[in-house]
Amino acid sequence: MDYGREVEFGVFPEPSAEKLPEALSMAQIADREGLELVGIQDHPYQRRHLDTWALMGAVLAGTQRVRVFPDVANLPLRAPAVMAKTAASLDLLSGGRFELGLGAGSFWEAVAAMGGSRRSPGEAYGALREAVEVLRLMWSDERSVRYEGKHYRLAGVKPGPRPAHPIPVWLGVGGPRTLALCGRVADGWLPSSPWAPPEKLPELNARIDEAAAGAGREPGAVRRLYNVFGIITDGPSEGFLRGPAEQWVAELTELALVHGMDGFVFGPADDPVRQTHRFAAEVVPAVRRAVAQERIRRTTR
Predict the structure, then answer these.
(1) Residue 262 lies in a domain
(2) How far apart are CA 170 and CA 41, in angstroms?
(3) CA distance 235 to 168
(4) What are the CA-CA distances from residue 35 to residues 18, 44, 93, 101, 160 (Å)?
(5) Quick check: is 163 in a domain?
(6) Separation between Cα atoms, residue 220 and residue 188, nearest integer Å
(7) Residue 61 resides in a domain
(8) β-strands 8-11, 263-268: how paired?
(9) Domain of residue 24, CATH code
(10) How many Å apart are CA 11 and CA 263, to the nearest integer?
């Protein structure tokens, strides 16, 4: 399934305090060399990690054109009304370059150790559904908003300031209920290749598409951004996304044209700065050409 959306590319730097120069270099390479996205994981309980939201501000300040997003925001440790305020602020400060990836939560022992709520699967789903509604209320033009949910409550809060652009909400989810929620209400889906390998994508995409259609939406309205982890080598293939640039081009092109994935966020397995250069120079332009050529061929045959 090809939803026909323009394919975008990005990088996934590690938010390690010890590797800050590396993370900033990856973002700057993406900015200079034609990539569109920088996604940063959000695990506040990781003692070696910087705060993701502070780091995103630094990345936005040090770049000019890439869009930056949490990949994905840790909802159990981030109140959605405050998250909305921070997101709108970063969007305004960067001239409309902030997007929002959002997850229901995981690593519950670590979340609870930091004072967050330990949620059952049902509670995590309910909180995620409510959070999307709260975020959008907080970005609205309303003079004041109220919301009465099981997990979140707004009692006449005044939204604002408004973001510089309509911030999309991309959900990093994989369960049946959360995939259906993604199809009904989200702007995008943000899976990762380790837990959503290519052979699983048809089933997972189908759940999103069915829910979208049931809600009166076009399935193509939901972006499909894929966190891809591997390494570009000079030798023979060692498996999926572990091989020469030509293999990467073939595999990402197939993911776009057959599985409908229209964004690829690259997490290098080793030597991240050099790998980011190679991805931008050897893989991305070739995938763009291959996808565009096949789409033209399909429309003219």
Answers:
(1) no
(2) 14
(3) 39
(4) 25, 27, 20, 18, 30
(5) yes
(6) 10
(7) yes
(8) parallel
(9) 3.20.20.30
(10) 11
Q: Whole-angstrom Cα distance, residue 179 to residue 175?
A: 6
- Domain hosting 87: range is 8-222
- Domain count across the chain: 1
Q: What phi and psi, each to the nearest 5 degrees, are found at residue 90?
A: -65, -35
Tell me which H or E stretch contains 9: strand 8-11
- Taking the C-alpha atoms of residue 58 and residue 23, their distance in angstroms, rounded to an integer, is 11
Residue 246 tokens, joined: 């030509």
Which tokens belong to 94?
């960067």
**CA dist 275 → 187, 232, 278, 287 (Å):** 29, 7, 5, 16
The terminus-to-terminus CA distance of the chain in angstroms comes to: 18
258, part of any domain: no
Q: Hey, how many other C-beta atoms are within 10 angstroms of the C-beta on 232?
A: 24
Measure the CA–CA gap between 58 and 96, rounded to whole angstroms: 15
For residues 217 and 196, what is the distance between their CA atoms, to the nearest angstrom?
24
Q: What is the mean pLDDT of each run of 10 residues along the chain (301 residues)?
A: 96 98 98 98 98 98 98 98 98 98 96 96 98 98 97 98 98 98 98 98 98 98 98 96 98 98 98 98 98 93 73
**Cβ atoms 173, 189 nearer than 8 A:** yes
Q: Can you say how many angstroms the Cα of residue 135 is from the centroid of all Cα atoms in its chain?
A: 16
